[in-house]
Amino acid sequence: MRLTLKRPDDWHLHLRDGAAMAAVVGHSAAQFARAIIMPNLKPALATTAAALDYRRRILAALPADTAFEPLMTLYLTDNTSAAEIHAARESAQVHAVKLYPAGATTNADAGVSAIENTYPALEAMQALGLPLLVHAEVTDPQVDIFDREAVFIERILAPLTQRLPALKIVLEHITTRQGVEFVSASADNIAGTLTAHHLLLNRNALFAGGLRPHHYCLPVLKREQHRQALLEAATSGSAKFFLGTDSAPHPRSAKESACGCAGLYTAHAAMELYAEAFEQAGALDKLEAFASFHGADFYGLPRNQGEIVLEKSAWQVPDTYPLAGEELVPMRAGETLSWKLRTPAHAD
Ligand code: DOR
Ligand code: ZN
Is 246 tagged catalytic? Predict the structure, then answer.
């Protein structure tokens, strides 16, 4: 069986920097025409100038013959000015601004400590139509980790949409039924991304036969009923939901550790993993719009021209990939996948 799709995009990707970025960017370029690149580097990419420099480094690291377009984002801080937002828009290379609650995840220390501090920036974004990408988890240690997304929606996101009703918002990596319901019930300026790993795994995967650090990510995997809600959203055909892998490379040593880092690496087989999830749901016919149309439409960008082919053909995922002198353990390491991406990287 073969599936031909218009070339897809990844609307949420971590590429890191330097040698690590050079080691992984080829995987995404082979899968996707474009990707929204997360700004949680150290130091955080809080200015347009920094984002544009990073873009140049990504382009320079691309394997020869690839046509991959990095779509840059700014890292929102308590001090992001309206002028910085205007500069971002004028650059035409910055396509969104990312909100990390301070301390919520990897390199989120420089994130937002109180949403009120960001109103000048958010008002400018609303006026310019620049989307806000939200890591929707409260950081309050009193809140159970499995409830942090639902509580964020209640405490922060719902009031924010009341205050700035025309602000374009993407609820990133939705992990709960509450997240799906919030997006579904909102106006068209509110959308959500879904990762392959949250579509394929529930929280049992964290503890299958022992502690599984390679399945630890943020927001953390949830119960099966939530995974079912995500699958329904992804396969519903609703233009509000689109693909964002949140592929997040960490060296093996940082994952297999007494205090392991959050993140799954899925860029090596992103479309194969989404195809598996959509096939399980009996909805392969909904994959193309989810992967290739809805995100571009939401961001106001043209849909891609080229095509990719996914073939039902078993292959074994390597145990590791090289990562700047270390090892990277990908999702499904050493296991067999049933779909294989066939089209070369530069197909368009
Ligand atoms: O699991 C995650 N990893 N979640 C995030 O929000 C950040 C990401 C990373 O950068 O490693
Ligand atoms: Zn992310």
Answer: yes
